[in-house]
Amino acid sequence: MTSTSLAGALTPAHLRFLEDLFPGEGLVTAPVEMAVYGADSSRRSAMPWAVVRPRSEEQIVELLKWAEAERVPLVPRARGTGMSGGAVPAFGGIVVSCLWLDQVLNVDADDFAADVEPGVVTAEFQARVQKQKLFYPPDPASLKISTLGGNVATCAGGMRAVKYGVTRDYVLGVRAVLPGGRIVNAGGRTHKNVVGLDLTRLFVGSCGTLGLFTRLTLKLLPLPEGSATVLGAFGSLQEALAGARGVFRAGILPTAMEFLDAKACWAIGQIRDVPWPTGANGEAATQAVLVLKVDGSKAALAAELARLEAALEPANPLCLFKGLGAQEEEPLWEMRRLVSPACFHLGPDKLGEDVAVPRGKTAEAVEGFQAIGREQGIHVVCYGHLGDGNTHVNIIFDAADPDQAARAKACKEAVFRLTLALGGTLSGEHGTGITKGPYVSWQLGETERALMAGIKNVFDPSGILNPGKGWG
Ligand SMILES: Cc1cc2nc3c(=O)[nH]c(=O)nc-3n(C[C@H](O)[C@H](O)[C@H](O)COP(=O)(O)OP(=O)(O)OC[C@H]3O[C@@H](n4cnc5c(N)ncnc54)[C@H](O)[C@@H]3O)c2cc1C
Fold it and tell me: Exposed, middle or buried: residue 247 (CB in 10 Å: 0-12, 13-18, 19+)?
């Protein structure tokens, strides 16, 4: 046994152990092949010491026994779509790819529950349960390319969170392997369970720092029969926000409530024909767009659309477009999906923040974020999950210009300060990982951080699991 590896790389003895445990393609050591396992969608990267690809829980148990004894850091990884560098081995270590653990083990229409391995792609799971008229609501925009394990480790959210909540609300149980090889079975298959502390919730959002998931038990719902969408364009941000308030005050709980600010609307117009007024030919230019979805029985949907329309009318929309059923809704939602790539029409680089504020503070937050951009002379594009108070604040700049880069950083920090002053959180979806690590202490007090460090120490006393991704 050695205690040197946390500071260094692998020894020949380590490599022999890994070759035995992960024969053939299960072990990757060639730098050209490993490089892709060292990056994620945060655009951060670091070369892994090695990459292993377990096919079974037994291999993971042996790996974690050995890693604990040898003090070798491990970084769990799935599809690498994370936006905060959670899967990047920035502090060294072996990357453990969970993509070969990709089986749906069972789907039970009576229990409304399913057991899955962590490497199952989210959209494939949704399609699988849909065949049994079941519904798994969490819908991160990355659902076709991210995994259930990654979603649970980051507590991914999506557009349907307004009505259905986030990943956390659908995890009934987690089976995980801890450093030293101990197996934990947290939670279970029941929809209610109050025996003991809620270890399941501790694992959700833990970013691979507490244990390596090998099985997840997920809650399912009956599949809604259909859905309908309304897209409304407004002549001011205030009118759009008033429209959103009107919807809630009318007693409607939409499945999704998304918004685009004026810069987002303009940028989308640069890459696609848009349905809303653009200010050409003397018409009023669109300053904000709302996109709302409702779901339910086919018989009720037409009436729900009419209620939505009536709730939005007092806010003076410039126009409203309606879609009943997937085919009619798709072109309306395409507008929302285009915003992220469209932002690059405003500049070559962006800082993408995912702050959230209490719902009632959304108007103040968005107006404040836009004012920060004006003060710094930087494009700030706001869009996203209005119904949750979770705004994607995109700060667009040119990283090659040091002055712009400094102003972009000043913008980001001002956005964080305003968010916290409004009682919000620095991350509603993407987690802190390495990109927001330096700012965690702006939000969490010493007492809270000490408790989290203590919990981490109970699960992982040697600090070998995803080092540097904590909350210190
Ligand atoms: C285009 C795009 C759109 C996105 N949209 C959204 C969105 O709408 N909402 C949202 O919340 N996020 C979104 N994201 C971010 C990202 O998709 C999510 O964070 C997702 O949950 C990551 O899943 P993954 O499979 O790629 O995991 P990875 O990025 O590989 O890993 C994420 C974290 O999970 C840990 N992990 C992975 N597997 C395991 C395991 N078996 N056991 C323990 N820990 C593990 C890793 O260590 C890491 O900390 C988006 C990303 C992109 C690129």
Answer: buried
Does residue 212 line the site of ligand 1, with CB under 6 A?
yes
All structural domains of the chain with their residue ranges: 5-99, 104-222, 224-324, 346-430+442-461
* 286 CB near ligand 1 (under 6 Å): no
Using CA atoms, how far residue 145 sits from 123, 131, 164, 243, in Å, is 8, 20, 21, 33
Atom of ligand 1 nearest to the CA of 98: 41
Q: What is the pLDDT of residue 71?
A: 96
Separation of first and last alpha carbons in the chain: 29
CA of 147 to the centre of ligand 1 (A): 7
pLDDT in tens, 153-169: 999 999 999 999 999 99
Fold of the domain built from segment(s) 104-222 = 3.30.465
Ligand 1: which residue has its CA nearest to atom 16?
82
Ligand 1 mutation target, pool 45, 139, 146, most atoms within 8 A of CB: 146
Cβ atoms within 10 Å of 25's Cβ, excluding its own: 9
* CATH class of segment(s) 5-99: alpha beta
Pick the CATH number of 346-430+442-461 from 3.30.70.2740, 3.30.930.10, 3.90.550.10, 3.40.50.720: 3.30.70.2740
Helix (H) or strand (E) holding 379: strand 379-385
Give tens-digit pLDDT for 444-468.
999 999 999 999 999 999 999 999 9
Q: How far is the centre of ligand 1, averaged over its atoms, from the C-alpha of 150 (Å)?
A: 4
Identify the pLDDT of residue 8. 59
Ligand 1, atom 2, lies closest to the CA of 142
CATH for 224-324 is: 3.30.70.3450
Whether the domain at 104-222 and the domain at 224-324 fall into the same CATH topology: no
| Alpha carbon of 91 to ligand 1 centroid (Å) | 19
With a 6 Å cutoff on the Cβ, whether 339 touches ligand 1 is no
pLDDT in the model for residue 445: 96
CA-CA distances (angstroms) from residue 255 to 122, 139, 379? 19, 11, 30
> What's the gap in Å between 308 CA and the centre of ligand 1?
33
**How far, in Å, CA of 17 to CA of 15, rounded?**
5
C-beta 432 within 6 A of ligand 1: no
C-alpha 155 – ligand 1 centre gap (Å): 8
